[in-house]
Amino acid sequence: MVPYFKQSKEELLASKKELLERYQMFVDQKLSLDMSRGKPSPEQQDLSNDMLKISEYITDDGVDCRNYGLMDGLPQVKQMFADIMGVPAADTIVGGNSSLNMMYDAVARAMLFGVAPGSTPWIQCEGRKFLCPVPGYDRHFGITEEFGFEMINIPMDENGPDMDLVERLVSSDPDIKGIWCVPKFSNPTGIVYSDEVVRRFARLQPAAEDFRIFWDNAYCVHDFDVDHPEKLRNIFQECIAAGNPDMVYMFASTSKISFSGGGLAAMCASENNIAFAKKHISVQTIGPDKLNQLRHLKFFGDQAGVLAHMKKHAELVVPKFQAVLNIFRRELEGLDVATWTEPKGGYFISVDAMPGCASRIYELCKQAGVKLTNVGATFPYGKDPLDSNLRIAPTYPPIEELELASELFCVCVKLAAVEHLLSARHAA
Amino acid sequence: MVPYFKQSKEELLASKKELLERYQMFVDQKLSLDMSRGKPSPEQQDLSNDMLKISEYITDDGVDCRNYGLMDGLPQVKQMFADIMGVPAADTIVGGNSSLNMMYDAVARAMLFGVAPGSTPWIQCEGRKFLCPVPGYDRHFGITEEFGFEMINIPMDENGPDMDLVERLVSSDPDIKGIWCVPKFSNPTGIVYSDEVVRRFARLQPAAEDFRIFWDNAYCVHDFDVDHPEKLRNIFQECIAAGNPDMVYMFASTSKISFSGGGLAAMCASENNIAFAKKHISVQTIGPDKLNQLRHLKFFGDQAGVLAHMKKHAELVVPKFQAVLNIFRRELEGLDVATWTEPKGGYFISVDAMPGCASRIYELCKQAGVKLTNVGATFPYGKDPLDSNLRIAPTYPPIEELELASELFCVCVKLAAVEHLLSARHAA
Of A69, A129, B132, B344, which is most buried with the most CB atoms under 10 A? Predict the structure, then answer.
């Protein structure tokens, strides 16, 4: 393949004609496909259907889950999450069905009450800022936008966030209160933070003593090869070793293990952090849904049960990622119009199209009936400075639809590039 | 019976001796009973066990409840709550399992963002105040204490809060941002707000335009005689009629209908209020547990199904209230040592002991192995200015234990009164 940018105007015009013809064929099919959100497929949800048949309500040690109590969760479920996260069960709180809710509440608590007894509420810090590795998760950015943080983009590479930049900013600016991290199979690039990156996080010397790392380990057990998982260093232990035990809040959920619409979420943090959170949560609620916790406990048993279950997810998810990547390679390789990630787990493929082309690709796909994640969604304020990044979510659609959508996507990536190059030459 | 206060010193000493002997008999039984919280009994929870056998996950109109989406709840469940609350389904949000959590979040939202687009966050009102009808619900007061409100006691009578006082305060002080109400079978007095009280609430002319009534209708369908329910006027409609549609937030839950540890909660309010809440909730969570919503929908069907279910609760609860009240009448009537409420629904009996005696009664009961709700819990800051009110929660214990505990309670009420009178005479 000759990269487009090396092609002559005539070659580009010929490519454009051919691409428009292919594009029209897609339009004629009147597609209606959605690749916008990282949702498990119905087949993935089916894997947990037997959980819905569990009608028990008393734990093995005699707790009646139907009644009030146990504000921080059933001890056995705390243990299950603690094992998955690599922390002590005592440092774990099991919440409702949404880890996003727990993160929002953690930020809201810090806004109103600070992060420790006697610390200053974040709302009193007028120039409060938050670091946002990009591309990242739109709903994280939504929270810090809601609470009035200035969000600062931090570039990511295959090892994680640019730690030189993170260290420089965090150590010098006391208005920087936190950073969003998806350390394993990062949303959307799918990369896993390297040991070095995790260690540098744990050793940060923040100017703000109330600086917190929001470690959203949403895809902690979501390896494609569950028997040979990608290793993520344990930030909790590293923070203790570095003398920064209180610096990290960890989050996880079963939204993509059991049910997105009825799973469990958990938060883990130091003894100090958990005591502070519990003090406020005990005013907020009498406790989460323990019947659903018991269902999960009876269905999974323990961490090993969760991992065995994740193998079944992988069997369904891997072929979809492979299908998309095969089409990307076939259609795009050698043309220098896009780069993409090939993750070993998680829910997304991140595509960097030719700068200035992402919005056009989104529009072209939309007009042909394929909905992508909004352009810019992976950046704070919904603004991708390069108009380049697109997030592909392969898990939900059936594989035939996925292949169709992926092929259309590639046609649009190429068409947008050709248009862009022709327009640039015309202007030149 | 001769009231204690009319008895001679010798008569009182004789009563004391007799009471101490009875008290010692209870102590010798080494009881361990808990009458402290308004918890449904295991038998009540059993009524909903069949709900746990529901393993469906698709609604009749094809929504897969296992996946993400529907942040404000399943439409059919919104309708069910709306019917119970007497509001349009569009003005309803179904949340997780805790209405307390929805109330806390409503206050937290107002603290951080105000109550409407452009309104001032409550946190900026330094002298913020909240009205607290007393005796009331400790967890309500916990929320407004957490958020730094000065809490003002509002006396209650059999018709509801003292509306002369409420009107005078609310219309004159813009720092008063809200009031806690449990309008039906009020916690703990069990009274139902009269039509007149509800109308006067709806017609308030608050000095603060961001004043909100927190209408916690926790016991809206918890009548002892479900076929002849106590009527509570519809505050939502009254507020519309009075030109104050945005002044009320309504809350309810199935915590005492289905399961306390796995029910559903809902909030109802005007279109403006709901739109404002949804704007923020959509940042906070992708949505509540829809599988549990579907379970409730399939089990109850609709409002009529809920009411039929409440009859079964009443059959279990009424004998317990009667048992307590029979003992109160037998032991206390005519002695002028206590008054108590005889509610027609809900979860509590409120006892006003001789002023200055509640703490002593609590201690005496505790030393004999019966745990009551903390003295003062029914007042802001946990401080009952008269040291008189005690909340009795009859629903949880088996009836034999309840009778034992009630008898002990009465002995302690009398013993504390005798001690108090003797001590007063000694001082005089």
Answer: B132
Contact A420, A31 (CB under 8 A): no
Inter-axis angle of helices A271-284 and A99-113, nearest 10: 90
Cα distances from B411 to residues A253, B167, B327, B340, in angstroms, run 52, 41, 11, 15
Neighbours of A202 (CB within 10 A): 23
For residue A66, give the nearest of B57, B69, B262 by CB distance: B262
Chain B CB within 8 Å of residue A136 CB:
no
Per-residue pLDDT tens digits for B175-219 = 999 999 999 999 999 999 999 999 999 999 999 999 999 999 999
Q: Is B37 on the interface with A (CB under 8 A)?
A: yes
Give the pLDDT confidence of A256-309 residue by residue, as tens digits: 999 999 999 999 999 999 999 999 999 999 999 999 999 999 999 999 999 999
Of A98, A111, A284, the CB nearest to B104: A284
3-state class (DSSP) for residue A23: helix
The whole-angstrom distance between B56's CA and the closest CA on chain A is 8
Q: Taking a C-beta distance cutoff of 8 angstroms, is the pair B129, B152 a contact? A: yes
Q: What is the pTM of this model?
A: 0.97
Chain A residues within 8 A of B53 when measuring between CB atoms? 53, 55
> Percentages helix, strand, coil for chain B, rounded to the nearest 5?
45, 15, 40
Q: Which two tokens stand for residue A48?
A: 């947990």
DSSP element (H, E) containing B143: helix B138-146
Taking CA–CA distances from B285, the nearest residue in chain A reads A101
Query: Do residues A252 and A81 make contact, with C-beta atoms less than 8 angstroms apart?
Result: yes
Q: What's the gap in Å between the CA of B145 and the closest CA on chain A?
A: 10
CB A82 within 8 A of CB A302: no
Residue B1, pLDDT > 80, answer no
Give the pLDDT confidence of A66-84 residue by residue, as tens digits: 999 999 999 999 999 999 9
Query: A55 and chain B: CB distance < 8 Å anywhere?
Result: yes
| Nearest residue in chain A measured CA to CA from B37 | A68
Contact of B250 with B236, CB cutoff 8 Å: yes
Each residue of B302-314: pLDDT tens digit?
A: 999 999 999 999 9
Best interface-test mutation with A: which of B50, B285, B290 has the largest number of A CBs within 10 A? B285
CA distance B187 to B373: 12
